[in-house]
Amino acid sequence: MSDVLRSHGHRRVPLPPAEDTAAPHAPSHSPGTPHPGRSPTPPGGNGSPKKRDPFFDNAKYLAIVLVACGHAWQPLISDSRLAEAAYMFVYAFHMPAFIVVSGYFSRSFDMRADRLQRLITGVAVPYVIFEIAYTYFKRYADPDPGYPISLLDPWYLTWFLIALFIWRLTTPLWKVVRWPVPLALAIAVLASVSPDIGDDLDLQRVLQFLPFFVVGLVLKPEHFQLMRRREVRLLAIPVLAAGLVCAYWAAPRMKVSWLYHRDSVQELGYAAWTGPVMTLALFGCSMALTIAFLAWVPRREMWFTALGAGTLYGYLLHGFLAKGSRFWDWYDQEWLYTPWGAAVLTLAAAVIVTVLCTKPVQWMFRWAMEPKMAWAFRRDAAELGRGRGARATPRAGEAAGEKRDGGKAAERG
């Protein structure tokens, strides 16, 4: 962890080292998903974890609010160029920002047993639970009761969980290759021109979003310190403004599906050569907007900082309302398509996802998001060995002490 820095007369608080736990995003202290902001126990410390860095919790909360707002705006984009521009602008960076932060806090992941257990209980198990729950919800709300349960075909928001599971497992690979980001970009380009990949495990999204995760893996605390500099924050203003202008220009000219990264260019109806061009162009735009967004995330404790620990709850639970609003025709009201109607939708989405990130909601759904499942795993043999060694050491010391005392007594005698 870098020392405290000073820039332009302001005291800089150092960022925590990366820990092994991913989310977009993540429950308050989930055993498998990342918890950007909570530092691990320091070596040789007293066992108490370090204080969470508010920057990452603030970033996660603001990003999840943008996710909810984007979902609320989606039905409006066919009737309003302004709504479509705002939607495209937000979609250009909200998930990349989540994924970059998740990658940053995956840097210390390896195949150690306890970390694999946390990955299973904090990512894989919630994926199974919510994939099944979303399937039954669709059967109930949609006239198609025959929609099958398929853990190989993520529906709606669950794609992020399976993607996070796969990315996390590949972390050791990215640690040993010489040029991880260019390699990840090459994989994303190849995926964009490979329609035969299919829909299993949403691999198109997994591979096309992969470069953002790898960027997070190679980032260091000093890179986030650079974003704190005053000149970076000032530069972020025209970058964000340019993003809005470009989104307004692109709204009637570009398919929104480009920003979902879930289809090959052939499936979108374009020539294969557009795959490398659009993949690299969108990656550059998304990274620029992500940096600009992170540059303006507050570094101090805010009223919403604590909510950043529950963003995975807000992410998965708000999906039922987002999809329900379509199934039950909540958008049939004409006033929603007016400017003030869009403002009401934005406020409602922000309030709802905020409530879903609170402690009471976390307490109610912790069984699904953060299951303990100690019964499902064997105790690590090495851990048991360390425990036996620790218990044996005091007795050995006592025996040695008794031997020394006995020898001294014999000498005195």
Provide a descriptive summary of the structure in words.
The protein is 60% helix and 1% strand. The chain has 413 residues and is an all-alpha fold. It folds into two domains: 5-377, no CATH class; 381-413. It has a two-stranded antiparallel sheet. Strand 1 and strand 2 form a beta hairpin. Helix 1 (54-73) runs antiparallel to helix 2 (81-91) and helix 1 packs antiparallel against helix 3. The longest helix has 32 residues, at 381-412. The termini are far apart. Residues 1-48 and 392-413 have low confidence and may be disordered. It comes from Streptomyces zingiberis. Residues 33-43 have a biased composition (Pro residues). InterPro entries: Acyl_transf_3_dom, Nod_factor_acetyltransferase. This is Acyltransferase family protein. The chain crosses the membrane at residues 55-73, 85-106, 118-137, 149-167, 179-197, 203-220, 232-251, 271-296, 303-322, 337-357.
Question: Topology of this protein?
Answer:
Layout: E1 5-7, E2 10-12, H1 54-73, H2 81-91, H3 94-104, H4 113-141, H5 159-169, H6 171-176, H7 180-192, H8 203-208, H9 210-218, H10 221-227, H11 230-250, H12 265-268, H13 274-295, H14 311-327, H15 339-356, H16 359-369, H17 381-412
Antiparallel strand pairs: 1-2
Helix pairs in contact: 1-2, 1-3, 1-14, 1-15, 2-11, 3-9, 4-5, 4-14, 7-9, 7-13, 11-13, 14-15
Pfam family, one: Acyl_transf_3
Region (Disordered): 1-51, 386-413
Transmembrane segments: 55-73, 85-106, 118-137, 149-167, 179-197, 203-220, 232-251, 271-296, 303-322, 337-357
Protein traits:
single chain, 413 residues, 2 strands, disordered N terminus
